[in-house]
């Protein structure tokens, strides 16, 4: 595994590559971000961003969403995967915001996780992006990149990936690291075609070196 120092070296190169890394879900307030993140489970941010402007125009507050019939919510999010379940979840979530939190999005992980459709990853995104509270949300990109670079153990669970990153990265860099790892995984170290041949991290990436070796052997 990469040491704390090597991990920061790797991350610094990624920060340089993607200085503009940021959350890509469109939102104007914590309520909209929370709903957008719930909708983004097993769906792309692009598909969520296409649907949410009309959704939030129709239901601009938790109060409006909580009071809406499911059949009015479904058509607004029909282009997003698992929309039936998600319609139920966002309505139930809005109801809980009204019943338990006076229509406000709570600012602790425990309270966020207690809401329908909200898991640890969603809670961490909301903490970091809506409230600036340090948190690292581990999605498929964060997990893949940190394992390829051996920042984390290959058999680490999602929670272990998060805990390893929290140990190795200073707290004030957690949110930036989360966004940078996602950009790096989405646009450079992709699942199918990582760009190892032009990667500034190749010298510290065993996975990348193995891939390059395989490519050379295939050419011969
Ligand atoms: Fe990803 Fe390849 Fe770079 Fe390693 S060398 S971090 S596998 S792109």
Features:
220 residues, mainly alpha, Endonuclease III, domain 1, 62% helix, binds iron/sulfur cluster, iron-sulfur, iron, DNA binding
Can you walk through the features of this model?
Its cofactor is [4Fe-4S] cluster. It comes from Enterococcus hirae. By secondary structure, the chain is mainly α. It contains twelve helices and no strands. Helix 5 (70-77) crosses helix 6. The chain is elongated. Iron/sulfur cluster binds at residues 148-149, 188-189, 194-196, 199, 201-202, 205, 207-208.
In short:
With 220 residues, the protein is mostly helical.
Structural class: mainly alpha
Tally of DSSP β-strands: 0
| Helix content class | 55-70%
Q: In the CATH hierarchy, what is the class of the domain at 30-131?
A: Mainly Alpha
Q: Main sheet, how many strands, which sense, barrel? A: none
What fraction of residues sit in β-strands?
A: under 5%
- Total of helices: 12
- Give the overall form: elongated
Bound molecules: iron/sulfur cluster
Rg, Cα atoms, Å: 19 Å
CATH architecture assignment of the domain at 30-131: Orthogonal Bundle
- On the 0 to 100 scale, the average pLDDT is 96
The CATH topology of the domain at 30-131 turns out to be: Endonuclease III, domain 1
Low-confidence stretches: none
Could you give me the name of the CATH homologous superfamily of the domain at 30-131? Hypothetical protein, domain 2
InterPro entries: DNA_glycosylase (IPR011257), Endonuclease-III-like_CS2 (IPR004036), Endonuclease3_FeS-loop_motif (IPR003651), Endouclease-III_FeS-bd_BS (IPR004035), HhH-GPD_domain (IPR003265), HhH_base_excis_C (IPR023170), HhH_motif (IPR000445), Nth (IPR005759)
Cofactor: [4Fe-4S] cluster
Pfam families: EndIII_4Fe-2S, HHH, HhH-GPD
Enzyme class: lyase
């Amino acid at each position: 595994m990469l040491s704390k120092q090597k991990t920061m070296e790797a991350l610094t190169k990624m920060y340089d590559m993607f200085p503009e890394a940021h959350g890509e879900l469109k939102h104007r307030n914590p309520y909209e971000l929370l709903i957008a993140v719930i909708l983004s489970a097993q769906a792309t941010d692009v598909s969520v961003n296409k649907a949410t402007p009309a959704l939030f125009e129709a239901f601009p507050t938790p109060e409006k969403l909580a009071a809406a019939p499911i059949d009015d919510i479904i058509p607004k999010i029909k282009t997003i995967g698992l929309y039936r379940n998600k319609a139920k979840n966002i309505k139930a979530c809005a109801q809980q915001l009204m019943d338990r939190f006076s229509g406000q999005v709570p600012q602790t992980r425990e309270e966020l996780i207690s809401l329908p459709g909200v898991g640890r990853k969603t809670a961490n995104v909301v903490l970091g992006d809506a409230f600036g509270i340090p948190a690292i949300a581990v999605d498929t990109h964060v997990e893949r990149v940190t394992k390829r670079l051996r920042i984390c153990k290959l058999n680490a669970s999602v929670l272990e990936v998060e805990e390893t990153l929290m140990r190795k990265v200073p707290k004030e860099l957690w949110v930036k690291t989360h966004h940078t790892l996602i950009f790096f995984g989405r646009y450079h170290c992709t699942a199918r075609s990582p760009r190892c041949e032009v990667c500034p991290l190749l010298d510290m990436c065993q996975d990348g070196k193995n891939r390059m070796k395989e490519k050379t052997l295939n050419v011969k």
